[in-house]
Amino acid sequence: MSFSKKANILTKEEIARAITRISHEILEKNRGSKDLAVIGIRTRGYVLAERIVQSIKSIDGSSLPVGALDITLYRDDLSVVSEQPVIHKTEIDFDIEGKNIILVDDVLYTGRTVRCALDALIDFGRPRAIQLAVLIDRGHRELPVRADYVGKNLPTSQKELVQVKLEEVDEEDSVFIEEAQNE
Hints:
The chain has helices spanning about 10-30, 45-60, 80, 110-120, 165-170, and strands at about 1-10, 35-40, 65-70, 100-110, 130-135, 150-155, 160-165, 175-180. With about 180 residues, the chain is an alpha/beta fold. It has a single domain (about 1-180), classed as Rossmann fold (3-Layer(aba) Sandwich). Strands 3-2-4-5-6 form a 5-stranded parallel beta sheet, with helices on both faces. Strands 1-8-7 form a 3-stranded antiparallel beta sheet. α1 (about 10-30) crosses α2.
């Protein structure tokens, strides 16, 4: 199955504004940055987590711990994804015990990735709370998962694919929809 670009959703500037807004909402909901830590799901969730940490630093001057979480081995569809899955490094070099964790991902879809991330996080300790921040919420949940902070709600069809491109990984910042093409 191939995909063709259907619509541009967010530009570089709109992504930056969404991150700034999410950062303000995080600070407001948590009454500041005390006991906060930010953990991004590899790969693009971690890039967004780093950007949120930088944004929070520019807003209130605090330096929050940031970590990267690889959920590959926690996936419930591991055998379907690949015979030889690529395992990336989880980098959480701080204690999550008693902290308010902001878990970050690029796109929230079925909720299965977030469920895997929750399982993985609990293996590192018991945070006080885990809040979810996503750049795009596209709907179609299969599990009872809801984001606390959303850059953009984007209703999609099951035939569509949301692509998030970030400069640190893809050499550009953009979000667009691709649609499946019958060949």
